[in-house]
């Protein structure tokens, strides 16, 4: 007596959510975030020769004790910058998708507690933090990998446009207050 083709009560909201997600994937903001993700992933996959050359250069600078060079600091700075790019390249896309989905949910039903009030601004703020940190990291990588100037400048260009689009779509994101992270810490009594 079970109709396997009948839709259950839970399937309709899930289908609507998936349709929303697919619509968001085609938004200019989502497309640009995805372009950054794909570009960064491609850059990382093709970086071995440049990293090996830089490693050799730093080893030689260390052995020769070249004046004005601090190979250990250069290596640490380079590694930290690469870690920042690696940490945020996927997260930016995820947070911008959540910001857009949250904004729609907030507009559809302001009393729905699935998303906290202003979750869209909070998610956009996290994306902006990731964008800003990534811009700084790519700038540092440009100093270390001059032969990679073209793809690094492309990443910086995408991030700059992404920052502007995010600020335009979520004008209150920068002023969003994240308890425990922005300003005074939360005091538990």
Q: Low-confidence runs (pLDDT<50, min 5 residues)?
A: none
Structural class, from helix and strand content?
mainly alpha
Q: What's the rounded overall pLDDT mean? A: 80
Largest sheet: none
Helix content: over 70%
Net shape: elongated
Distance between the termini: 56 Å
Question: Strand-and-helix sequence, N→C?
Answer: HHHHHH
Strand content bin:
under 5%
Number of strands: 0
Q: What is the overall number of helices?
A: 6
Q: Rounded to an integer, what's the Rg over CA atoms?
A: 22 Å
Explain this structure.
It is a single chain. It contains 6 helices and no strands. The N and C termini lie far apart (56 Å). It is elongated. The protein is mainly alpha-helical.
Please sum up the structure shown.
The protein is an all-alpha fold and 189 residues long. The protein contains 6 helices and no strands.
SSE layout:
Layout: H1 11-25, H2 28-45, H3 48-64, H4 71-108, H5 119-144, H6 149-169
Could you list some keywords that capture this structure?
189 residues; mainly alpha; 6 helices
